[in-house]
Structure formats: structure tokens, C-alpha cells
């Protein structure tokens, strides 16, 4: 069975150097789980957009994907902007089932990692 594609969704920036860590993350994940199983997109100020990625997936015949927002918490983008984009995507590509995951910053592993980094910073 083919894995469900993972879409990494970052905020976006007009500064190319801002995108570098997200591009490295996507490239590293592709090495682990397959080139076609990880896609990266941005909310604004950079491309591809979430709609671009949904179009790419639908064109390739995908019927399902998971979106992992690379955000710290459930802010305005997560609560208002992403649902609006998902409505538009669902209207254009009704055969594409989308699962929106919680923001990465709320994952217990990420919270533990931040705690460790902060703890090391205090000890330094």
C-alpha cells in the first residue's frame, strides 16, 4: 500500500534564506520516506501554495494527504486561513481527502525538545 503523502505547510517569507530550514527538512524526510511522499508549501509570500500542492496531488491521482503545519501553535492561520483554503481545495478537488494535523509546535516531542534546548541554555 502506498503511503499517504505528507504536506509540510510553512508560513512563508519573501526572503529565500528563511525557507532553507524547511527545504532541508523536506529533503531529509524525502530520503527517509520517499521522494513523492513529502511535499512542502507555504501560506504566503512564497510558492508553491497549498492550492498548488493540492492540484499537483490531484493531477497525480492521489486520493488522500495529510497536512502538517510547521507552526508553533493554533494561531489565526491555523484557525481561520487554513480552513478557508481547505474549503477552496475541497471544492476544486472533491476526490482528495485531506487530514489536517495539529501544529508541530503542539506535539509532545516538539515541546520536550524545546524544553531541553531551553534547559541547556540556562545551564550554559
- CATH top-level class: Alpha Beta
Q: Which percent bin holds the helix content?
A: 40-55%
Ends apart, CA distance between termini: 48 Å
Oligomer: single chain
Task: Report strand order across the widest sheet.
Answer: 2-1-3-4
Do you know the CATH topology? Rossmann fold
Q: How much beta, percentage-wise?
A: 15-25%
The residue-averaged pLDDT reads: 94
Taking the sheet with the most strands, its summary is: 4 strands, parallel
Low-confidence stretches: none
Written account of the structure:
With 124 residues, the protein is an alpha/beta fold. The protein has one domain (6-123): 3-Layer(aba) Sandwich (Rossmann fold). 49% of the residues lie in helices and 16% in strands. A four-stranded parallel beta sheet has the order 2-1-3-4, with helices on both faces. Helix 3 links the parallel strand 3 and strand 4. Helix 2 (50-59) runs parallel beside helix 3. It is globular, with a radius of gyration of 15 Å. 17% of the residues are buried.
Amino acid at each position: 500500500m502506498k503511503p499517504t503523502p505528507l504536506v509540510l505547510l510553512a508560513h512563508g517569507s519573501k526572503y529565500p534564506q528563511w525557507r532553507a530550514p524547511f527545504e532541508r527538512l523536506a529533503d531529509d524526510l524525502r530520503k527517509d520516506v520517499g521522494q513523492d511522499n513529502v511535499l512542502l508549501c507555504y501560506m504566503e509570500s512564497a510558492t508553491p501554495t497549498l492550492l498548488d500542492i493540492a492540484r499537483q496531488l490531484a493531477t497525480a491521482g492521489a486520493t488522500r494527504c495529510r497536512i502538517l503545519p510547521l507552526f508553533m501553535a493554533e494561531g489565526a492561520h491555523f484557525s481561520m486561513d487554513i480552513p478557508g483554503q481547505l474549503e477552496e481545495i475541497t471544492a476544486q478537488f472533491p476526490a482528495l481527502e485531506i487530514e489536517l494535523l495539529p501544529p508541530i509546535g503542539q506535539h509532545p516531542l516538539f515541546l520536550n525538545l524545546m524544553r531541553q534546548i531551553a534547559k541547556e541554555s540556562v545551564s550554559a
